[in-house]
Recover the amino acids of this structure.
């Protein structure tokens, strides 16, 4: 039974995460790239 991946989610948009996302996008897979929101200085 062959399964094809159509959508992926990548957690972390640093060097490695963005490269993985680019790879999947380049082969035609829909990508959702997620990362944490940096804390603002006023909340510290």
């Amino acid at each position: 039974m062959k399964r094809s991946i159509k959508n992926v989610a990548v957690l972390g948009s640093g060097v490695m995460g963005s490269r993985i996302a680019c790879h999947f996008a380049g082969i035609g897979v829909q990508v959702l790239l997620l990362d944490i929101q940096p804390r603002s200085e006023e909340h510290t």
